[in-house]
Design brief:
The protein is 14% helix and 32% strand. It has 72 residues and is of the alpha+beta class. It is globular.
Amino acid sequence: MEKLPLRNFGVFSESEYKGKTLLEATKYAEEGGFVVRIAEEEGDIKMLDMSVRADRLNFRVRAGFITAVFGG
């Protein structure tokens, strides 16, 4: 699979994702060249490794909707 260039050179705003469903936000992120990781779901904080990637977005999800997003 060909790697897409990052939308806006990797600069994102939480408002682009917050309030979208997980499916909508994931599709939007991947179309922008980002990789998605769930960091928290329904209050359950996931165990994450300490790797940092400029092309990765971490989502916090509640009731199927994005409540927060951060890079890395």
